[in-house]
Amino acid sequence: MLYLGALLLSCLHGVVAERHDADLMSFVTLPEVRALKWEVTHHDRERQAPGYWFVAPYGQISPEEATKKYQQYQVGPYIYDNDGILVWAGPILFDNRNTFDFKANLNIDGDPHLSFIVIWDRENRDDKGTGVIVDKHFEVEHTVTPPENMSDFNMHEFNILDGGKTAMACVYHSQEISLADQGRPDETSWVVTGGFAEFDLETNEVLAEWNSADWVSVSESKLFLATDNPARDSGSSWDYVHANSVDKNEAGDYILSLRYTNTLYGISHDDGSIMWRLGGHGALSDFAQDFTFSKQHDVKFVSSNGSTHVISFLNNAGDERGADETMSSALYVELDTEAMTATVLKRFNRPDNGLTLLRGNAQSLPNGNTFVGWSERGYQSEHAPNGDVLMTAQFASSRYSTYRSYKSEFIGRPNTPPDVVASVYGTSNIDMTTIIHVSWNGATDVAGWNFYAQAYDRGGAVLIGHANKTDFETMYIVDGYMDWIVAEAVDKEGNSMMKSEVTRSEAPANWHSVGFQGATNPSPDDPSLLSAAYDKISSGSSDEHDDSMGDGMDMDHEAPSDDSSYANAKEVAQSVYKAYEVIRGIGGLLIFILVSSSIGGVLYGIYRVVKRRKVRSYQHIASDDDLPMEEMNLRSRAE
Ligand SMILES: *[C@@H]1O[C@H](CO)[C@@H](O)[C@H](O)[C@H]1NC(C)=O
Ligand SMILES: *[C@@H]1O[C@H](CO)[C@@H](O)[C@H](O)[C@H]1NC(C)=O
Ligand SMILES: *[C@@H]1O[C@H](CO)[C@@H](O)[C@H](O)[C@H]1NC(C)=O
């Protein structure tokens, strides 16, 4: 019978490849979650830092239109492990709202947290967007909303400083400025200013605010010329600096990246004055430097000690209008603010030698590695200190990007119990099978699952098996009609983490229509009796069975082996299960060729399990004709 499985597999490969949603994951336990799949290449696993990936895929950079209809979750914060296996699907929290700068913060009041920006709401213009802090139980602990006189929460940065007392964000304003220093004393133009604010996370108070209009002339911009027509209203304001990242060192001074001046600014905490400029092309640079950069993103202090600062940033080296170098790179630069020298310590080129013309980030990891988000299609890489590329990955889907990508250790402990779905199948009373699916959205460190069955909803729980956790969702197949199921998450020491609710198995509405041969509908087994029977059988005929399913059954269950049709059915069920496992990996539609034999019913039963997985096809296809323009919708509202 095994040839059947092989035959099915060869047919399925062709079918699956054509599915338009084959780049999305799907789960029995969380059918509303369609997380993006990854294509991952590990070049050297040994030297990678421990941790998970934090990304926030979006289809379009501006807020999505609400559909007012049921829509599957795709856009928003997600955690994956180092192999691209889903750990947490977060869009449920904010219903597919566009999310940026999603990352872990290991020390907010001494505890791991998550943070991200939910940008302004197209449906409700009173909602200017929010900085969100979520605890390790995935409950919103704190939100930061911009005060009355501040524009929308800017999408670029939500930089929670260590300890979690304050956070920094970029701030954009539309305002009218004089063009006097352009030699046009009688003229004014509307501009979008770029700056930052530091918020007190306890009180939401703005502790400091800095505005480019006070310090950075339009003549520093690479985008607007002294001869350009001034903008007459706030709606057409020149986005002349485009602030896109900010950080603060222990001395309290700030570093700010302005993309359209190709410059990084050191800003004094005393009076907001510009202490120095590090400018890629400008004569304005205060440093002697032997390198250039442009259209940069994500400047951060790596260390800062007196007059020596090590900073990291992404040198995009180009934008939608053109490239200044042939490829983008992550740079570590040492600044000596006494000698006024700037030296490149490390340069990590984009592994595919490409250009990231929009967005992106570079993150220094605790073990000395560097994690780089190249943004488009979620392309990301991890680099050893010597520059070796240790890992590259991208979304299987070309429809999505993420503004930044991070890697970090994290502990997730959901307060909600694991989700379980169980179903019963069979063609006769002696071949009943219960298939259990379990997942626990956001839980880290789950090593495996114990499964229990109960004869009725409050009956005694009988351990019916164990499976190691290898994926977001774990499937487990057990002999017999198990009516009430509990799944228990266990850590690697075998300690219980949490149990699911007692969940009733689903059965076919009409047993005969799915191939059941018995005279009357099957009735549930008493798990304690079945367990005793198994123990008896297995002590009589030990080590006979082929445990090729290898799914971690720790109880030596063996069905009566003198029934040859049962044995055949089991063999087919096993090969189908293997086929199923492979298909889970690639995801998508199963078309089973039903064979007319006594085992057809089993096949059809399993076909139905899989068919249920074929949830509604993907609803929203973001237009991807052009690169999404980063500056779209970044403007303040007319003030
Ligand atoms: C907003 O209001 C606060 C408090 O009145 C003030 O300190 C701040 O400068 C204002 N900001 C802007 C951009 O008007
Ligand atoms: C600061 O830098 C100096 C010179 O490199 C070094 O001697 C000193 O130990 C550093 N201090 C700290 C706190 O890192
Ligand atoms: C389950 O995990 C444990 C611990 O890592 C391992 O010893 C065991 O072999 C695994 N079982 C299977 C069936 O993979």
TrEMBL record:
Keyword Secreted: no
Signal peptide location: 1-17
Coiled coil: none
Keywords, alphabetical: Membrane, Signal, Transmembrane, Transmembrane helix
Transmembrane segments: 585-607
Keyword Cell cycle: no
Highest taxon above the source species: Eukaryota
Region (Disordered): 537-564
Pfam family, one: Arylsulfotran_2
Xref: PANTHER family: ASST-DOMAIN-CONTAINING PROTEIN, PQQ ENZYME REPEAT PROTEIN-RELATED
Name of the molecule in the record: ASST-domain-containing protein
UniProt source species: Penicillium angulare
Lineage: Eukaryota, Fungi, Dikarya, Ascomycota, Pezizomycotina
